[in-house]
Design a protein that fits this description.
Elements lengths: L6 E2 L3 E5 L5 H8 L16 H14 L2 E6 L4 E12 L5 E9 L8 H13 L5 E7 L3 H9 L3 E11 L2 E11 H6 L4
Parallel strand pairs: 5-6
Antiparallel strand pairs: 1-2, 2-3, 3-4, 4-5, 6-8, 7-8
Length: 179
């Protein structure tokens, strides 16, 4: 599976993230409101976001989301943890958008394009969401993701962080709200 495709629809261009995207993407990410429900709530800080950005580039799968009307980067997402076994799975996550694009259907358009690409190769797409990130949980339910019984426990700044795992299967996508 190509985890860094170029995807496009009427309003958006989704392309591989590059080191040259730092300034534009940090301009979006530096808004603390984007991260207020996120387990890594301080990702708006330059040092914290720099580590996030460098990790995204190092692991591959990171994508820049561009508004085709303005030609500006408005956010980012990733394909992560691709596994070809048992029908295949991949995680979509680390998605964030500039606040002025919230509530305008952009997240659904990004996820539709990414899911359509992923389901050419895998049977299931997972989403990992912080326990108190209600905004992202609702957004996932709105695109047809279902919460599983799976969870993941990590640590951030010495505190335990619980992530809930949501999923969409190929059949669920084809019958769901993004079809």
């Amino acid at each position: 599976m190509n985890r860094q495709p170029v995807l496009e629809n009427e309003r958006l261009l989704i392309r591989p993230l590059t080191p040259d995207d730092w300034d534009a993407l940090f301009a979006v990410a530096s808004d603390p409101a984007i991260w207020e429900q996120h387990p890594m709530h301080d990702r708006w800080r330059v040092d914290v976001f720099r580590a996030f950005f460098e990790d995204a580039l190092a692991k591959g799968g990171a994508l820049a989301i561009i508004d085709k009307q303005t030609d500006e980067i408005i956010g980012s997402s990733r394909f992560q943890d691709y596994d070809a076994d048992e029908g295949g799975s991949v995680e979509i996550g680390w998605t964030f958008l500039a606040r002025k694009y919230w509530g305008k259907g952009i997240n659904a358009e990004v996820k539709r394009a990414m899911l359509a690409h992923a389901f050419e190769f895998v049977e299931r797409v997972d989403f990992r969401v912080g326990e108190t990130n209600y905004r992202s949980q609702i957004a996932l339910e709105n695109i047809g993701a279902e919460r599983t019984r799976r969870t993941e426990l990590t640590r951030y700044q010495g505190a335990r962080v619980l992530h809930k795992i949501f999923e969409i299967t190929r059949d669920g996508f084809e019958a769901g709200p993004l079809a």
